[in-house]
Write a structure and sequence with these properties.
This protein has 313 residues and is an alpha+beta fold. It has 14 helices and eight strands.
């Protein structure tokens, strides 16, 4: 769905080509290859940990919380040590006069989950290994034919959503321990980050990390004082008004483009803003209000309730 010249929603069709390895298969393959580098304690080993041992283990990974009882500490340590955090990366490049979009997934090295290189060397005697490099080696997830437009790149969101839903399924190591995976980070260049975060490209508010105006980019006190927004926060900015919600759910990549004057007024009023009279004034006011999220994020564009514990970007 795209917005036509007169502001109405227009449905368009185009063909897409892709090859995908299901994320579940990638997770299983990574777990199989990385299992030997993971700190795996049995339930019996957790039960034998004393309060002093639990405190020491939690402090070593900066997760100690004062006031917790022994059972709470044990459950939290077990949860932390059995959770892997995944990172998504994608980039668009032109090969042989055709645009190609590549997605890759990697597991983040976590001291709470994985051995250090020194620990593994002491355990196995293997001196020629870098644990972090082994753990963070990426896997190809999707290779797709795509142009540079948001409309084309967003066409691969539905298949990614299917994989995110499958992340609710826990895996098991060969020794029988449960493994929980969380999609935690995204990494990429500016256009990729802007697409993933729902941040406008170019313009006066192009930074996907903070909400500072482009002219304030070199004023570090302003940039560092800006609060980071989660995908859920960005989503709520877009869905706070009737037009933002309607156009986002209709899968428009730019839900606020070409709004009429009465639509601008209705959108701003729903956000508690009653300023402005002329259309250009209303557009500037709305742009300021949306400065940290001009589109619904690519993942949440399809399903507003997707922001769950398995997707904490």
């Amino acid at each position: 769905m795209v917005l036509g010249d007169s502001g109405e929603m227009v449905e368009t069709e185009f063909m897409v080509d892709e090859r995908k390895q299901p994320l579940l298969e990638i997770r299983e393959r990574m777990l199989s290859s990385q299992e030997k580098y993971m700190r795996q304690r049995t339930n019996g080993e957790y039960d034998k940990l004393t309060k002093n041992s639990l405190t020491k283990s939690l402090k070593a990974i900066n997760e100690h919380i004062e006031g917790e009882n022994e059972d709470e500490m044990r459950d939290r340590l077990k949860d932390i040590e059995s959770t892997r955090h995944l990172k998504m990366w994608h980039d668009l490049s032109t090969i042989a006069n055709h645009g190609h979009l590549v997605f890759m997934v990697s597991c983040l090295y976590d001291l709470a989950v994985h051995y250090t290189t020194e620990e593994y060397q002491n355990l196995t005697g293997n001196k020629n290994i870098d644990i972090q490099m082994k753990v963070q080696t990426p896997e190809v997830y999707i290779v797709a034919r795509s142009g540079s437009s948001d409309v084309e790149q967003l066409s691969y969101i539905d298949t990614r959503l299917e994989c995110l839903q499958d992340m609710k399924a826990k895996l098991q190591t060969k020794s029988g321990n449960n493994d929980t995976d969380t999609m935690r980070f995204f990494h990429g260049d500016s256009p990729a980050r802007q697409l993933e975060a729902g941040q406008q490209k170019r313009g006066n508010f192009y930074c996907s990390g903070c909400g500072a105006n482009a002219q304030q980019a070199y004023q570090l006190d302003i940039c560092f004082s800006c609060h980071y927004l989660s995908l859920s926060d960005r989503q709520q900015i877009v869905l706070a008004g009737p037009l933002g919600r309607k156009n986002s759910l209709a899968k428009s990549p730019k839900p606020f483009k070409k709004l009429k004057k009465d639509e601008l007024i209705r959108e701003l009023n729903a956000r508690g803003n009653y300023k402005g009279d002329k259309k250009n004034e209303l557009e500037k006011i709305l742009a300021e209000d949306l400065r940290r999220g001009s589109t619904s994020t690519s993942i949440t564009l399809r399903k507003p309730n997707i922001n769950s514990p398995i997707h904490q970007l």
